[in-house]
């Protein structure tokens, strides 16, 4: 049923199950075959231009339709995927799936449509992924790199063990754009923003949640937005749930927004309907 209505109603594990090492091992084993059994799926959440409400992008968010446990949240299984190294294979699948969808929505709805995908720091270590693969896939789909935005977190930019510089340059060469996810919550070094030629900052939802006029959170949002714009970086606010938050973010000069106010993450066919409505508006 969760799949039908396209909403994320997760069946969370009990605290006991989470703690149990055995259940983690079982889950890791299940995850190993989940890809082959087609149990992983992507939901898409619209990213709207705040001033107009038009949908210009989507974030792809992974879910696991487990045969016994129902729809499992990435917060539950991505850490297991990272520990076991399965994140590499899963990440390749996410890229391929999102790229296919981006090519489709660019052809059907908007030639500049972008889908952003999340990348774990683990995917930047050693052979985190094969660069040959994804470039070939872009060519095969006739998808310009601009159709894809890669979301990374601040910590990665300081991770000496990763080949982040090389990879980000490869993305840049392929036209793929880069967003800093959950901005403001990690160990950030602002100098990295210029060094790595970032395209988007995503203001973490913890700054948006209690947003009020003349509040500290408002001051932080305004400062982040001014700084980003001076560096030629666009800003996306995450976790917008209320009309007030939307208005305050517009007032602060924020470019794009994402959150339950506009839509929850939904399956591709439901997102199609959102895009059709969007064009009518
Ligand atoms: P994220 O990338 O920061 O994604 C935003 C999260 O906020 C999503 O949770 C989304 O459903 C949720 N969200 C969106 N709007 C609202 C709102 O208005 N209010 C509230 N309370 N929440 C909102 P989700 O889908 O559970 O994903 C959690 C995290 O899992 C993501 O955080 C991301 O770090 C990770 N993740 C998701 N998909 C992937 C993937 O394909 N690969 C990797 N490596 N990580 C992923
Ligand atoms: Mg993200
Ligand atoms: Mg985020
Ligand atoms: Mg995150």
From TrEMBL:
Domain EAL span(s) in chain numbering: 24-279
Identification of the protein by name: Uncharacterized protein
Organism: Methyloradius palustris
